[in-house]
Amino acid sequence: MNKRGEGGEGFGDILLQYIGYIVFVILFFAIMFYFVSAQKNGAASWEDFYAKELARIIDSSNAGETFEINVNKATKIASKQGILASEIFDFDNERNEVSVRLSRGRKTVFSYFNEVDVVAWRVRLAEDGKNNILHFEIAKADEVVEGDAK
Amino acid sequence: MTFFRKMNKRGNNIHVFAFLFLLLMIGIGIVAGVSIFFGRQTDYRGIEAAILNFRIRECIEQNKGYLVSLNQAQEKDEAKWEIKRMEFYDKCGLNGEVLERNNWARIVNNKDELIFYSGGDFAQCEIKGNINYPKCVTESLKLDGLNYEITTTSKQNSRRIIG
């Protein structure tokens, strides 16, 4: 009598044959999951958006003006990525560049042509977490401002 | 019997390639989809060119006499012209280094005299539909009976760097 499985391979054998495939599929989908979750908060596009908006504001500004911008979305993404609020924005007055960092190890940089200095910039976190503000002031280029702080 | 085993093994190898090909296709699909959805940049070039144009017009209006002395047609020496160009940036509160890298600017009057020029081939402004060409803005300004045409461009894109 030829019973089912008799003389053939058992479930264990078949599983062993396909174990390579299974491991490969799991690995592949793990990598894809990591890639998609790294992209899904849109850190790169938000970095781009904030860098360009800040450059636009600086290019249109005049010395003596003060700006307060709601940066809720940026602080939300940054906190998910483990980045401190004080590390998100940076203004390089030497190179006339604004940089925005919303993910670890990378940042987006954009230049502004207006010859001014951005001073006294800081991110002010609101208690309710809904109105986080980036504060900065525009000064004449190379003008030393008392209490210029990050 | 040995022949059938060999055939079976060859079949398995083909199976491996089909499997890898399938994964590769799925991978390319996911990466392309995600990149298209999240990878699009905000195009700021038109706005930047417009702001620069406004800044230059504002500067010219505030320094009327300066524009006459700037006339590039009168300056044949390239080195001297470069100094004048830098003076212009200084006078208008613009950062020359950034502008020379990312923007072009040109001022022409209605006598076809080239008053100011920095940058590259402005013929690219006429070509529409190619996203790689700079965005251009042209505005005119009437001053002391002369019409000035100011063209500014921007080709700056944000840079994502390690840091």
- What topology, given as strand order, has the largest sheet of chain A? 1-6-5
Strand order of the largest sheet of chain B: 2-1-4-3
Biggest interface pair, residues each?
A: A-B, 37 and 37 residues
Overall body shape of chain A? elongated
Count helical runs of chain B. Answer: 5
Strand content of chain A: 25-35%
* Secondary structure: helix percent of chain A: 40-55%
- How would you state the average pLDDT of chain B, rounded? 84
Helix/sheet category of chain A = alpha+beta
Any descriptors?
A: 150 residues; 3-stranded antiparallel β-sheet; disordered C terminus; B: 163 residues; alpha+beta; 21% strand
Summarize the structure.
The complex is a heterodimer of chains A (150) and B (163). Chain A is an alpha+beta fold.
What does this structure look like?
The complex is a heterodimer of chains A (150) and B (163). Helices cover 41% and strands 26% of the residues of chain A. Chain A has 150 residues and is an alpha+beta fold. Chain A folds into two domains: 9-38; 42-140, no CATH class. A three-stranded antiparallel β-sheet of chain A has the order 1-6-5, with no helix packed on it. In chain A, strand 3 and strand 4 form a beta hairpin. The longest helix of chain A has 30 residues, at 11-40. Chain A starts with 10 loop residues before the first helix and ends in a 10-residue tail after the last strand. In chain A, 27% of the residues are buried. Chain B has a domain at 45-154. Chain B has five helices and five strands. A four-stranded antiparallel β-sheet of chain B has the order 2-1-4-3. The model of chain B has no long low-confidence stretch (mean pLDDT 84).
